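Sorry to interrupt, but I need a hand with the structure work. Please put the record directly below this note.
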Amino acid sequence: MNSAVAAFALLALATQALASDTSTAINPYSLVDVRTLKALPHDVNAILGRQKNGPEGIADVGEQFNRADVADGRLPMRRFILAGSSLDSLLVAYEQGGRAYSIRAKGFAGGEKLEIGP
């Protein structure tokens, strides 16, 4: 999990840089760890696709997902890694399976949704 935490920190800094061009910025130093999808707000889980089955959904930490491009149609293509939450922002890091496995993030701040990743 250490490499995931490091990747999350880098993504947080990238999101802050991305958001600095707008009136809303995510301060990564104000974020508190969230280690399961169950602890995220319902509307964020809905945006992430937690209620969906198969490739459109998202697995929680430790659950199975399609890491490679040979996909099982019953499993999601994404898996939650870690989130950071503050009073006015939320940053979610997740694994994206498929041909080009990657770690991505979605940021939510002041009602805006930001997306970064390769």
